[in-house]
Write a structure and sequence with these properties.
Helix content is 24%, strand content 20%. With 547 residues, the protein is α+β, with helices and mostly antiparallel strands. The protein is globular and about 80 Å long. The two termini are 30 Å apart.
Length: 547
């Protein structure tokens, strides 16, 4: 019968009626399973969607659009006929590189009344911590108020003559990056003035699945740590605004992106990166920021725009060996001497697996184990920058105690778990992550989206995965069997049965193939393994890689 099946024209996904497809994870109670950082498929089942994520198998992906584009298409009523104050800088551009400032100025239905610039100024050229003056824009003839000069919060006078306050600035996903502090302060000022706030949403370049690092404690709140967030918060600026608003109570509207999913990195959006500040010219700097920039005041420092970390008294070769043996995914560490200091250069090999905040804790801990470094001490009324960046003084204590990176992670884990639960309330449902499959590095497109079934297995349409693997597919409607043949290997699946035949030998799976929405859905793990290819699971991006 297998020969008969394989001779049938490749019709695996004919539009035949569904015979009671098994319910997927997206349709059940939404309880989240734990996700192992290692996430090896041989040892760990696929995780279901986290609580509040919505249906991961929802319809086809939309074209990607930024919030500033969606504003004038779908949310025009928020600005039509109004005097707009815009908080922005050079990163506030659309997909084609045109600034929101220009778009609003050219729109006859909107009056752009004032601009507000964060740290580094509205053009992003001022250095870190550099005082920026307010001035009048030469071409537009409107005030450009500095929020990194005499004040960091808009004054009542700065908001005079404004009907609505818009925010459009690209963040980098780290708690200590001050653009989100500016957002928080602007929301508070608008609330006091009785002005509505509109946040034009933008992607978190690190994605929204990786939430890591110590959660800020109240005592250590500052402009480099404005709220109780971990080092890597995994939220968009719109979601952060919703989170901030739990305490502020502003009249807030988030204009969402279209076609964005939480498990997308910036590289998946098709956007060109615009330098957000002098030391963040590119995505390599974005990903290196938390990995190399945590040692403020300790003698462990970053260089070359967050591509290098080290210090005096470190043996670069030993430092690299420790980090390369630490099990950090997606990165290699290359020994490099810089003047009198020795350290390592980060070589990111897989942006989808690289964990910047976790890497930063490991790098700092390993550096302290090799060199004679001192932890700066905060006093009651004088919090040192190291503790502000960390959001706690416990990290310094753990370094002095000589704890391992794993022990430090374990100490921070309970509060991080609490934050992850709290954060769910402020995530935008339309950004629910979708499951992705890559075969030999190339993304596989499906006409029916993958989903997690009730047995916690990722189900995919058989035709798409088989064709990506270079396999032939046959369908027998009478016996409801699917045959997949590749390079002399033959696998026979039966709908609604856990039994499969691999080259004639019977195998038992822990789930069953089904027909769902007129498509034959099979577990990607088994079809790949039975055909003799390697399968890997990335829990941070919900991606299955077949190699």
């Amino acid at each position: 019968m297998r020969k008969k099946l394989l001779n049938i024209v490749l019709m695996a996904l004919l539009a035949f009626s569904a015979f009671g497809a098994a319910g997927g994870c997206g349709n059940n109670s939404g309880e989240a399973n734990s996700i192992s950082p290692a996430g090896e498929m041989e040892e760990t089942s696929f995780p279901c969607a986290a609580k509040g994520e919505g249906d991961n198998s929802a319809g086809p992906e939309q074209e990607f659009k930024l919030g500033n584009e969606v504003l004038l298409e779908r949310y025009r009523h928020l600005v039509e006929g109004k005097r707009v104050g815009l908080v922005t800088n050079q990163s506030g551009v659309d997909r084609k590189g045109k600034s929101t400032m220009e778009r609003l100025h050219e729109d006859s239905g909107v009056k752009l009344a004032a601009l507000y610039g964060p740290e580094h100024g509205i053009d992003g050229k001022a250095g870190a911590g550099e005082y920026v003056e307010s001035y009048v824009h030469e071409e537009l003839g409107i005030p450009v108020y500095s929020l990194y000069g005499k004040t960091r919060k808009p004054t009542a006078e700065m908001l005079q003559g404004v009907d609505v306050l818009l925010y459009d600035i690209q963040d980098i996903g780290a708690r200590s990056y001050t653009f989100i502090s500016t957002l928080n302060y602007c929301m508070a000022a608008a609330q006091e003035k009785g002005l509505p706030v509109v946040v034009l949403d933008r992607p978190n370049p690190l994605g929204g699945m990786m939430v890591e690092g110590p959660v800020l404690e109240e005592r250590f709140r500052s402009f480099v740590g404005v709220d109780h967030l971990p080092k890597a918060h995994g939220m968009t600026v719109g979601e952060l605004a919703r989170f901030f608003n739990r305490k502020i109570g502003a009249d807030l509207t988030v204009v969402p992106m279209e076609g964005y999913r939480r498990n997308m990195l910036y590289q998946d959006t098709g956007l060109t990166w615009v330098q957000t500040s002098p030391n963040i010219p590119d995505l390599e700097a974005v990903f290196g920021y938390m990995a190399t920039g945590l040692g403020e005041g300790t003698g462990v420092f970053q260089a070359d725009k967050f591509r290098w970390i080290g210090g005096r008294g470190i043996d670069a070769v030993h430092f690299a060996a420790l980090l390369n043996e630490a099990g950090l995914e997606g990165v290699r560490f290359i020994p490099e001497v810089r003047g009198e200091a020795e350290g390592v250069r980060l070589h990111i090999t897989d942006y989808y697996r690289f964990n910047p905040a976790r890497t930063g804790i490991y790098a700092l801990t390993c550096a302290f184990s090799l060199g004679d470094f001192q932890v700066p001490k905060s006093e009651k009324d004088d919090i040192v920058m190291f503790d502000k960046i960390m959001g706690t003084d416990q990290m310094g204590q753990y370094l002095e105690q000589g704890l391992s990176p794993q022990e430090i992670e374990a100490r921070f884990a309970p509060e991080l778990r609490r934050f992850k639960e709290e954060r769910q309330k402020y995530l935008l449902a339309e950004y629910a992550p979708s499951y992705k499959v890559r075969v030999w590095g190339a993304a596989v497109d499906f006409d029916s989206p993958p989903y997690i079934d009730s047995n916690n297995r990722l189900m995919v349409p058989v035709r798409a995965i088989a064709e990506a693997l270079g396999a032939d597919v046959g369908w027998d409607p009478e016996y409801r069997k699917v045959a997949v043949d590749r390079e002399g290997k033959s696998v026979l699946f039966t709908i609604d049965s856990a039994r499969a035949e691999v080259d004639g030998a019977v195998k038992t799976m822990d789930t069953i193939p089904v027909i769902r929405n007129g498509r034959t859905m099979i577990p990607v793990r088994y079809v790949s393994e039975y055909l003799g290819v390697d399968v890997d699971w990335n829990p941070y991006t919900l991606t299955v890689s077949v190699n």
